[in-house]
Amino acid sequence: MRTLAIDTATQSLSIALLADNHLVAETNTNTKIQHSTQLLPLLASLCRNVNWSVDSLDQVLVTRGPGSYTGLRIGVTAAKTIAASLDLPLYSVSSLLALAAESSVKPGDIVIPFINARRQTVFAAAYHYKNETWEEILPASHQKFDQVLAKCQELVDDLNQLRLVSPDTEVFHETIQASLGENFYQKQVDTSFIHASQLIHLPLSAEDYDTFVPDYAKQAEAEENWLAAHPDSIGREESYVERID
């Protein structure tokens, strides 16, 4: 069973090839988001290096979000196109769960993965790790980071049971320090990125090529601005294109 796994939910880009759930090759980049120009060339290079062809794949996995709008569109579109063109099964994984799995977790911990959504807001969720499985405590949502920290403290009796993980920890260093202390930041906050090779070990959702869309967890800024200017349109299935007579 040959698997292609893709993650483009943040500024990092990760592509992995696996055979029978074992890693064959992986490439990870962590630069300014250039997924649109990097993804397919990196995939082609990865396949060449291990003498695989895209035609030999058996299934495709991709992170579905939430995360970067642009990144998610690129990753999901690529995964859908490859899977549909080769008639392969397509599966998705929550990007926040994938991020939680990158933490230095121990049994019984509650893990809060988060991704910077700008303006002191984040995409975040909460998971309880026990019996080598992940139980979702709080679903993925878009919220202010200080609200996330407040919920963190409500979820545990002992802060030693809590871990935060994100590729964006430095952005929120001062906020975490003010709320939970520098000792907590140093010992229980993990700066990490999603590795596509780990998606195969997480709960997978089977997706349909025609209906699968990313989980953005919030409206795009352009949509928010349009709805703010047209409040009567909220809840109505209309185009965001304004007609001018």
From TrEMBL:
GO terms for biological process: tRNA threonylcarbamoyladenosine modification. GO terms for molecular function: tRNA N(6)-L-threonylcarbamoyladenine synthase activity. The keyword Repeat does not apply. Coiled coil: none annotated. Keywords: Acyltransferase, Transferase. Residues 32-225 form the Gcp-like domain. GO terms for cellular component: cytosol. Its EC number is 2.3.1.234. This is tRNA (Adenosine(37)-N6)-threonylcarbamoyltransferase complex dimerization subunit type 1 TsaB. The gene is tsaB.
